[in-house]
Structures are given as C-alpha cells and as structure tokens.
Specification:
Fumarate Reductase Iron-sulfur Protein, Chain B, domain 2, four-stranded parallel β-sheet
Length: 724
C-alpha cells in the first residue's frame, strides 16, 4: 500500500471515529453541553473529510458519512427543543424495502444479461460441487487463516437469514428452544463480526492497490449492521435491567454494559441496522459483494469432464480468438465477476514468482473493467468494432509469459480459469493478427511442413527404434487385432531429442520384459499438435490432429500409452472434441501396474534419495500424482523425499504453453528457480515423467554451478536401470 493510500485511510477512519463518537454523545447524553461537545466532534470529523475530498477518496463512503452527520444535527436540534426519552419512536419505518429490493434486482438482471448475451459455453450445472464448495468451503480452506474467516462470515450470514425466513411463518417457539435459537444467532453474529474484521484487516494490508478501495464500502456497511444490531440488543437489555449474565445473548449482554438504558438510542440503532441491511442488499450488484452471487454461480457452472480441455472455437464461422470482451463466452464473463482478487493465482503462478509481468489476477480484473465499460455504453460498444481491445488490457509480455501450467486454475477457490482467456487472446494474435513471437516461428513452420517440432521429417521418425525389434502398425495391420495390445505413442521429443530417445528405448525394454504386445505408428506419426494449440495456432493444431485421427481410425487403435504428458493430455482431452475417443494412459500409470502385478521386477538400487518433480500436464491436468511415487518407492534402497512445492502445488519447469521455444528475457528463468529449489532438497536424483521437464530441469541444475548437484532422470529410465 502506498504512503498516500495509507494516509487516506488514516484520515477516513479518524473522521469516521469522530463522527461516530459525536453521534453517540448527542444521542445518549441529556446534558446540552455534553451533546454540544459531541456535535463539535462530529462537525470536526466532517471538516476532515472535506479536506480529504480533494483526492476524491471513497466518494460513496463519504456520502454516507455526511448523511450520518446530518442525522446527528437533526438529533441535536431535537435535544435542544427538549424532547425527552418518553417520545414514541415506534412509528413504521419508511417503506423503502421494495425500492431497494428493486435496485438489487435491476443490478443483478443487468449482470445476468451481460453474461448471457455472450457466446454460449455449453456447460451444465454441478449441484454436488456447489454444495461442497459452499457448505464445507473445501477450496477456500486451502488457506486456513483466510478460509476460516470467510467460513465464519458465511455462516454468520446464513444462520440469521434462515432464522429470519422461519420467523415469517409465525411459528410459536417455546421459551427454552427460543433461548437456544437466540444463542445460536448471537454466536453467528460474533462469528460474522470476527470474520469481517479479519478480512478487512487483510484487505487493508493487501499488496493489491485496488483491493482495499473495492472492499471497504461493503465491509464497513457490514460492520455498521453488526454493531448497530448488538447496540440495539444491548440497549434493550439495559432497559430491562436484566440481572446477571444473559446467556441467550452474550454479545448483547456485553454491549449492555456500555449501552445506555435509552429507548431513543435503542430505536435509533434498530433503524440504523434496518436501513444498513437494506442498503447493503441493494448495493450487492454494484460492489465487491456481487461475488456473493457470481462466485456460487461460477462454481455451479464450473467445467465438467476433462478440466484440461480447451474451448473449441468454430473457425469455419469466423471465430479466431478473443479480440474484445464481446468475443468471450458468458462463462468467461462470469469468471470476471466472480473474482474476489484474493491473489492465490498469483501466489502459485511460476511466471509471477519468477519476476515476469504476468498476473492472472490482474488479467481477470482488467477484463472485468472492460466488461463494465462495454456494459455502461451498451449502445455504442456492444458488438461493434469500437469496443476496447483486450490487448490494451493485457500486454504481449503478460500474454506470452504464461506456461499454461494451470496452477491459477487449480488454486482458485471459485473455479475461475484465467488460462482459457489467455489462450483465446493468443488465438486472435496468431490467427487474426499474425503476431506469433519471432522465436517460435521456425518451430511452427517445421510443424506445418514436416509434422514435428524438430523439422526432421517423417522419414526419420522411427530412427530411434532401429535394430530394436519394434513393430510399426502398418507391418501388423494384416495380423489379428489381438496381436497388438496397445500403441506406443512416442511423440516428437521421444523420437528426435537425443536425451528423450534414451527414455523411448527404456520403455521398449520395459514393455518387452512384461510381455506386452505393442507397436508404434513410426513414419505415420505426426506431432499431436499441442505446441501449436498452446501458442494459439488452432488451424495448424486441427490439421495435425485430423491427420493423426485418420491414421488411428484406419488401424482401429483402441488403447495408447505415451511417455509425454503433453501428448497424453492432447490425445485424451483434446482429440475427443474432433470425434476421436481413445483409452490413453501415461507410461508411469502402466509401469506402476506392471510392478504391482509383478510382471517386471526392480532388482538394483539407483540412488539413495529421490525427489519427484510433478509435471503440470501429468499432475494438475490429468491428476496423475501417485504412480511416479509408487514406482520410486519400489526401487530397492531408495528413499523418496518431497519438495516444498509438490503434487497440485508443484512448480512448473517453464516449458509448457509453447514456452519451450520462447526466450525468457524478463526476471529469472523458471527452470532455474525450480532446479534451485529441488537442488536444496538434499537428494541424489530428481525424477520426472515428462520430456519437457527432463530437458528444462537438467539445464536448470547445470546452470546452478553448485559443488554437488543432483542428477535428473526420467522415471522410465530409473525403472529400466533398476531392472538391470
């Protein structure tokens, strides 16, 4: 928080305290002199606020403060006229419930129309996910301190709301259960007060400059609701002069110690509480609190099925990515409204951690601002070329820094997906503007001309398997189907990169030892298309995918095992959108089963201590965490050590999302950050299950120039070595 912002908050809270203190003085003291002192204090607070107006700080809150000061002036005039506490203030409140409810309804309807008029998202609701998210706060409680505060605030609202609804039915409750219900309500209020204060303190200390200004108004309104309610209850108990501790209302009893036995004060607090609740409800669609509606909706409409599958644009109808917010789907719009700027995405983003300009939170917030700009000027900006460009909200450095590791998606407590928006923006830059980064163009050209990222061509695709007795499918096509149990999908890295070729040969050794009948496509295998799709070239991806699908269908392939998590994800989660549904597993899944079924035996030690690097496309994308660990534990004489960031919190190697072919010119190299973390784990060997991770981590470890560095190996190589 900047010094200026901090000073503004000091000014605001100082003035607010003065006004509140003056109001209490005017309301509770019969002595005109004391009341006059309260009035002077109030006016001084207002004067301080007028000085702060130059910065136009929290104008909406200031309006409320000034309105409060006018009320204090009115009460002071009443006191000078000699009105005593016997006045009957039990008149009906001004009937503004319906107008304020209408304001809320109109606000929500505008947001809903903004979401629904966009492209369809093809999603269905998830009641079970919504129930788990709301009632148990499973995802929010990943961060216990903040999650606990939010859980307290959530139930602090829900429980009184349930009671209010039940009261409308006119139930007559016996004395004992009524006291118990009162206690539950009071405890819920205490929980809400504590949760709100904790969240407010956290927001005021947030590094996000806009965090406090967005949340302060609704949180202050919530505190006004709580404190006024407790003060009203405290005044009621003071008037009744209840003896001893009032256990049905512990917070009311506490406030009764400081509340005057004044019917006027009690009635004023009741009205303040009532109006604050109404204004809070009406303000929901226009403030940060709209997340109370948008976030549950976003969880309800979270992506079902393959969570790693990207959107499938209709290129034939002219969809070439996202140029403006008008090109986003309604679910992507809902994502932006659901964001609470908690920062968990940034905390786990490897690009942000390594000093790149990318901030998933900032991207979502900037998209929301553009949404509001378009919504405010619907006549001129909606569905017209004049709408603000997304590239003005998200810079090229931000867009291309993403490694598509999906850490932001994994750790978002309300199921927001910054990744799909980044990919849509990349699609427009590549297919709409031809702005692919220069260093990636040779690779894309090789993919287009030769069908692989190395530019070697299909003639050399099976060179790695020369003299290994590996069958190619075209050689077995005339044999019975049972002759081949599965297809080994080698991938570009496994076919051409010297280091990864060793892993491919190790896999052949394991499959032969287990007696599995397999084959490869050989010269007929093309790149699966993952690099092209992640960089935004959807047209090239579909060209490669359809060529592969035609060959897979021709040979009636039913099951595939692959060494590359990127190939796994593409074949398993992306190809079904093109009509090709296959049983695809990763090599570690198969090998773990072979070890468990004793079809292969690991006889020899490989290293004393091993750490696992969880590949993003294997772990977060496809939830394969345990097989690599089971394999390493099965190696004789080996101890498995976990790094600080592991499993779904694992740190990316920096090679995904097409970043393998892009330069890192800003901040630290991501692979060096990860290699340094793993090198300090005090292990002899780093095991991974991805050809990208193998190369990136090996380079990262070598760049550290430490006296003793761990070796990096693919887990399949480790198994082959342990077999002897």
């Amino acid at each position: 928080m900047s010094d200026t912002t901090f000073l503004e908050y000091v000014v605001f809270f100082s003035a607010a305290v003065m006004i509140l203190g003056g109001a209490i003085g005017v309301i509770t003291l019969k002595n005109p002199v004391h009341a006059a002192l309260g009035l002077v204090l109030t006016l001084f607070g207002v004067a301080v606020q007028f000085v702060a107006m130059e910065a136009q700080f929290l104008a909406a809150v200031q309006v409320i403060v000034y309105a409060g000061a006018i009320v204090v002036l009115f009460l002071f005039v009443i006191m000078l006229l000699g009105v005593d506490e016997s006045i009957d203030l039990s008149i009906e409140p001004i009937p503004i419930q319906r107008p304020l409810a209408a304001v809320m309804a109109v606000g929500l309807a505008r947001r809903w129309s903004l979401w629904r008029q966009k492209k369809p998202a093809g999603l269905e609701g998830d009641w079970q996910g919504l129930k788990t998210s709301l009632l148990a706060h499973r995802d929010i409680l990943r961060r216990p301190s903040v999650g606990g505060a939010h859980l307290a605030a959530f139930w602090g609202v829900v429980i009184p709301l349930i009671v209010i609804i039940l009261v409308q039915f006119g139930f007559i409750i016996p004395h004992a259960p009524a006291n118990l219900l009162s206690l539950i309500q009071d405890l819920a209020g205490i929980a809400l007060l504590i949760g709100t204060l904790l969240l407010l303190v956290r927001r005021l200390g947030s590094a996000d400059a806009q965090g406090p200004s967005r949340t302060l108004l609704p949180m202050i309104l919530m505190l006004v609701i709580l404190v006024s309610g407790f003060l009203a209850e405290g005044a009621r108990l003071s008037i009744l002069r209840a003896d001893g501790f009032a256990w049905p209302s512990p917070m009311g009893w506490f406030f009764s110690l400081i509340s005057p036995a004044s019917p006027i004060f009690m009635q004023m607090m009741i009205r303040l509480h009532f109006f604050a609740v109404l204004f809070f409800i009406a303000a929901i669609p226009f403030t940060f609190m709209r997340h109370a509606v948008a976030s549950p909706l976003n969880v309800f409409y979270r992506k079902q099925g393959a969570r790693a599958a990207l959107t499938h644009p209709s290129i034939e109808s002219g969809e070439i990515g996202a140029r403006t917010v008008n090109d986003l789907s309604w679910k992507q719009m809902l994502d932006a409204d659901a964001c609470v700027a908690c920062g968990r995405c940034d905390e786990h983003c490897p690009a942000a951690i390594s000093g790149k300009p990318l901030s998933p939170r900032k991207i979502i917030q900037n998209i929301r601002r553009q949404m509001e700009t378009v919504s405010a000027d619907q006549k001129h900006l909606r569905n017209t070329p004049d709408a603000p460009l997304l590239e003005n909200a998200v810079s090229a450095d931000e867009m291309w820094a993403c490694t598509s590791c999906m850490a932001c998606v994994e750790h978002c407590p309300v199921a927001i997906e910054p990744l799909d928006k980044i990919i849509d923006m990349r699609r427009y830059q590549v297919m709409g503007e031809a702005r692919l980064p220069a260093e990636a163009r040779p690779m894309i050209r090789d993919l287009d001309l030769y069908g692989d990222v190395q530019g070697k061509g299909v003639a050399h695709r099976a060179d790695w398997a020369m003299n290994r007795g590996v069958s190619e499918l075209f050689q077995t096509s005339s044999q019975p189907e049972s002759e081949v149990e599965m297809l080994l999908w080698v991938g570009c890295s496994g076919a051409f990169h010297p280091r990864n070729q060793e892993t491919s040969r190790a896999m052949v050794k394991i499959l032969n030892a287990a007696g599995i009948r397999f084959a490869i496509l050989g010269k007929e295998e093309l790149c699966c298309g993952d690099p092209a799709r992640r960089l935004g070239d959807e047209i090239l991806f579909r060209k490669l995918a359809r060529a592969n699908i035609e060959r897979l269908e021709r040979y009636q392939v039913k099951k595939i095992v692959t060494l590359c998590p990127h190939c796994l994800n593409t074949l398993k989660n992306d190809y079904p959108e093109l009509g090709c549904k296959l049983d695809v597993i990763h090599a570690t899944e198969l090998v773990a089963d072979l070890i468990r079924d004793q079809r292969i035996a690991l006889k020899y030690p490989v290293a004393d201590k091993i750490a696992i690097h969880d590949a993003c496309y294997l772990g977060r994308y496809n939830q394969v965490y345990q097989p690599p660990r089971d394999i390493c534990r099965a190696v004789p004489g080996t101890r498995l050590k976990e790094t600080a960031r592991n499993r779904d919190s694992g740190f990316c190697c920096g090679g995904g999302g097409g970043r393998m072919w892009l330069h890192e010119n800003i901040g630290q190299n991501i692979n060096v950050v990860r290699a340094e973390e793993m090198a300090h784990t005090d292990v002899d060997l780093i095991g991974t299950a991805c050809p990208y991770c193998l190369v990136m981590l090996d380079d990262g470890v070598k760049s550290l120039e430490l006296e003793k560095t761990p070796k990096v190996a693919d887990i399949i190589d480790i198994v082959a070595d342990a077999m002897g």
